[in-house]
Each structure stands twice: as C-alpha cells, then as structure tokens.
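Let's practice the habit of predicting before peeking. Look at the sequence and jot down your guess about where helices and strands might fall. Then scroll down.
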Amino acid sequence: MRLLFSILILFISSFAVASSNEVPTDATTAHTPAMLNSVSAVRGLSVADFYLISQPITKYAEYGLKSLIVLGAVLVLGVLWIFILRRQVNRRTTELKTHQRTLSNLMNSLPGMAFRFRNEGNWTLEFASNGAFDIFGPALDDIINNRHYPYTDLIHPEDRAFVENTVQAALSEKRPYKTIYRLIPPGKAEKWVWEQGTGIWSSSGKLTGKEGLITDITERIKSEEKLAESERFARSTVDALSANIAILDEHGTILAVNQAWRRFAEENNAQMDAVCEGANYFEVCALCQSYDKNYADTFLRGFHEVIGEIRETFTMEYPCHSPDEQRWFIGRITKFQGPGSSRVVVAHENITERKLAEEQIKTLSMAVEQSPAITIISDPRGRIEYVNKRFYELSGFTPEEVIGKDSRIFAAEDLNPGTQESLLEALFKGEVWHGEFHNKRKDGSTFWCAASISPLRDETGNIIHQLGVQMDITELKELQKEREKLINELQSALTNIKTLSGLLPICASCKKIRDDKGYWNSLESFISSRSQAQFSHGLCPECAKKYFPEAIANNPE
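Done guessing? Here is the structure:
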C-alpha cells in the first residue's frame, strides 16, 4: 500500500511540474500555420491577429487537458486504492472471524468452563464458555448475571472463606491464583472444581474483574481418594504383618519399610537412618558379614538373581542370634510385576518359634523312632497313619504294608471279646484305655504287648488321632506262666503240709506215726512222703550228753 501511494504522489507531481512550464512560441507556431490560415480565411482575420487571439485559449486548453488527465489518473488510482483497501479489510475481517471462531472453538473445547467475573457484589458471572453446561446444566442461565443464584452462594459453605482468602490474596499482589473447592450446582450432586484465574485491571490500575478457567475434577478427587484409601489399606496391611518388610529399587536403595522393620531396628539399637528409608540395603547386609559372611553373600546373590529375572523369588533360612537369645529368620526376595521402575520386596520373618518347635518335634520324632515301645498313630476310625521302627522290628510288617489299614490287622485270633469291648467303649468316650494285646507277627507267631491308647485332640477339643503305645511283654508273660506254675506247685505242697497239722497218732515208745490208712510209719518216712523235706541225722545236746558224756566233757563246745 505504501508503494502504490508513493507512485500516485510521483505521478501527480510530474503533471503539476509539466503544467507550470510555458510552451515555447516556435514550437506552437511550428504546429499551427495551416490551422491558422484556414481560420483566418473564415473569419476574415489576419494570421497574426488570430494567433494573438488563440494563443491564450490554446494554452488554457492544454492546461485543462492536462488537468483532466491528472484528475482521471487520480480517480483511477483512488478506485484502485479503494479496491485494494476493501480487499485488505475483507481479508482482515475474515482473519478476525477465523481467529474468533478458532478462539471460540478452543474455549468451547477446553476441559472446563472459561469465565469472566465482574468485580462487584458476589463476583457476578458475566461470561461462561460451553463447558459450564457440564458443571451447572440448565441452571447456568440462572447463574449468569446473578439472575437467581449468585456464584459465590454455590460454593460449599465450608470452602467459601478459604476460596475468598486465596483469591483476594493473589489479586492484591496482582498475580495469578489457583484453588480447589467444592461446588453445589442447583439440582445436582456436589462437585469438586479446580479454578485458575487472574485479575483484570483498567488502564488506571483499578481491578474490574477476573477471568480464567474452572474445571470439574470430581472424578479425579474420587480417584485420588480411592488411591489414598488403597495406599492407606496397603500401608496398614503391610504394617500389620509380623515380617520385617522393605521395598528396594534396583540399586538396593531402601524406599519404604514397615513398622515391624522399624521395631526390630529399635529393639536391636540400630541407627534408623542407616537401616530405613534412604539407606542402601547392600550396606546393611555388609554389616552382617562379620556375623556370617556366607549367609550375607548368598542373600545378596539371590537379590541380583531376582532383579535380573533369573528367578522369580529367592528364599533362605538363616540364624541371627542375639547376645540374649537364639533366633532364626527366613528371608524372601520378590520382584514387583508389571511395567515401571524395578522394585523388589525383601521380607524377613522371625521363625524362631517354628525352628524351636521343629527341633522339639525332631527330638520327639527321634525318641519315638528309637523308642523300645511300639508306637502307632491312627485316625479316629482306627486306620493306621504312622508306625515307628520298633513296630517293624517286632511285628515284621513294613510301614508300607500297614499304612491305611485297620489297626487290628495284626491282632491274634484269640483276642478277648471283653478286651475289644472295653477298648471300643473307651475310644467312644474319648478316654485313655489300658490293657494287653495278643498280637500276631507277619510270620504267624504271636507276642504279647501291654498297650495304652489315648485320643489326640485339636484346639477345639475334637479327636483327630489315636495314639497307641505297646510294650512287648512276651518274656514277662512266660515268666508269669512259670510263676503261676510254681505257685500252683507250692500251693499243692502247702496243702499236703497242712494235713500234718491235724491230730496225728504217734507211738509213745517208738514214735511211729499212723497214717490215714491205719499203717504205722516212721516219722522220717511219714514226713518225706508228704513233703519235699529231707532229713540228716545228728544228736541234740541232751542226747549227746546222755550217750557220750566223755566226749562232751573233753569238748564242751
């Protein structure tokens, strides 16, 4: 445009300069002799007179012609200028409309409500983009210009003071503000919104309003609340575990620990910053190498195998005794699954009670296995679940041959019915039974056992097993038979000896005794036939003195 305007000025100037110069006489006369002659002939004037008369007219005619040409050029250029200017105006108008449409589309596409509030009363809502319908719905018309609902009245009562203070503090310093609060749209559920805005100031510096963007973040707040609840649940769950748990990154840096981990550190007088968040777990393990380097090295190797996905998990039991007690732990290393940064969970569980129980069970098992008594464990229905070594040694049956079988499988055929009845009655009542069994070996021979069968109960008192302990009393039974035989013989002898205690006829002279058949027998033969007594002969002191007085005199003793 500036170029065309310059050309127009130069064109007009050139014509103005040309019109201001006089036309030379010789040039004029050189081109008009014929014309002058013809005119003079018509008018009857001389050529010289006509020239003098026509010269000013010709001069002004030339000036007029030139002026018309200049005027025409100006008009043409003016029209051209107007055409170009109109095109520019139309193009600029189109650009402005396009920009306005783009701006409008952009504002309507915003994830929220673009707004403008006037600085008066309750911050009258002057403008709101289409996103406002998602927040307020049809009630938006009643909010614009405070028709029925001033915007500030829709802010949750508990949040109004906070929002007002936040906004005013920022506007007083002429800086943008951000705030989150709750809205209660008419006829709708409560919403959480995020507002970001800035003040509008006049040229004189007066605050006239504010404008910005309000976004509905209700779903985000709910998601954050759910996430916070999940995190709180996860934290509470991990803190409730008895295992000492730490979360590490791939470099071994401790990212988080649970309460059991902290408690263990405090109980063992450890520096919290050296074993908790921010510390390096490898260095913690290095502190344990002085205790047992092999365990520490093995555990670190397991960590690298898990982080390198050579194995999914790593588990190791190890001792960790304190000056006051013996302790055992089990360490587990597990990697987080899924995308994202590598994370590893390390858990150390105190298994001292289990270890001591295992040791106790092992001791009891050794005692049972090496016991001289037969030990049989069966279910409540009497099916055998376990037999010890002594059972095999005494019965000849292997465990494989009797496991799952009825415990009466090796009972002799002459089992006393009364014994079986008393046993079943005791088992039914859940009482301990004591008695004797006549058992049969695998080879068919028999042996006697003194047995004790006891019910085994769980924590609720239900019988879950039966424990039978039997001691071999076969030799004792044989001795008992011998004893009974001897007792019978002695009783028979005593019976015979008792017959001598009655009235016995004896001769006053020869001292013979009459038996129950009327025969007279010497005292020695009578007693010998009725007892196992044997006789030896000697002299009593009186007879010795009577019959051998001299010998007694020489040897008084």
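How did you do? The longest strand covers residues 446-457.
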